[in-house]
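lol ok so funny story. i was supposed to be doing the assay writeup but got distracted and ended up predicting the structure for this chain instead. priorities right. anyway since i did it might as well share w the group, maybe its usefull for someone
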Amino acid sequence: MAPGGGVADADTLVARVAAHIGSKAFIVHRLDRETSGLVIFARTADAHRDLSRQFEERQVTKRYLAVVAGHVVGRSGELTQALREFGSGRVAVDPMGRDALTRWQLRERLGEADLLELQPVTGRRHQIRVHCYAMGHPVLGDTRYGDQRPVGGAPRLMLHARQLTLADGLQLAAEPPPDFVSVLEDRRTG
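and the output, tada:
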């Protein structure tokens, strides 16, 4: 253990970023371990404060890609169920939970699945995964939210943080990695 209780020299993303830039890196935007895509770090405390404020004040637009089981009804919609965290680390729809809003748009029909673009307006833990499960279309590969696990037998969670647009209009994007694209292609031809 390092001073302060942390693991010394842990192989974490923030440790890798800090080593790459040669100074401390401040985490601004996180993803679930199983989710691929864009993550934001700040190099200074001031930048961290400003970027974190933008996320807290919902000034950042987040766009994700997800492949979900089955076919959604319609071409777009909003999921507004309140979400509540439980001590087990799970999250569920609960009217007594915190407000949550996820907008979605159908991008492509894929055999027995759909490719959706999702925009979580609020930033709740597991928000996209729980909202998709609650609407009856869990994210393929999910090992936590779905009746069959992993959902659809996919070898990875089919959720990718594709794009972030900051308050000043700066747009950051990350293309899906090869393992995401491979599963997507399999669903297109299957």
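The mean pLDDT is 93. The helical segments are 13-21, 45-56, 127-134, 178-189.
back to the writeup now i swear
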